[in-house]
């Protein structure tokens, strides 16, 4: 078998890199996160150049891959790295149902997650989520957890320290996200949203459960709202301007009514639904 030429290797790496950056907010942001010159990164994407070993190490670490991306298609590597569930557990059919994501109900694009903060009273947190399809038909969600959720009001962390990812799972009545961050202090939280309460599928109502407590007085279960912003970058930028941590008084009426009436042990109450139609 003939060894690949240097140009073929550059083309393979460029193609793999283009697959890896699909669904990211921007090439510029990826370059900043990795710490690489944007012009040079574009040369990698176009197959004009190979990265130095130290740059390749940072790229692999950022995307969670290894140096085989220089030689093999990324799809092949993903198949090899995913051994699948143990047949003895009887999970294959269960997992296939979980991966059958209905993108018509929750399309790819930007969303705004709104919930009370876990640690600071009378404050609300809004964060941006990017939802994107994976080759197997499932959906991947990316976000950054607000610094306030890692501690007090004055906590300040970078985006890289706060980023979290989740696969999105659906059943007939709702969608669930299990977000995990392994930076700074590991955190995991589950958000679940029901379908059908908003005729236009723009608002999804549910709750968020924190899997561990970072503070002595830390709420573990809170009401949450997922608002669809749109598929375009400008939709995400507009939603990002409405994100952050702010006082309860700035909530819209529908949001405030839902948060006030929410009962973790009972059904949805009709008072907040009236404001939707």
TrEMBL record:
In the UniProt record, the signal sequence range is none
Enumerate the PROSITE patterns for this protein.
HTH_CROC1
Q: Where is the HTH cro/C1-type domain?
A: 26-70
* Gene Ontology terms, MF aspect: DNA binding
| Stated name of the protein | Xre family transcriptional regulator
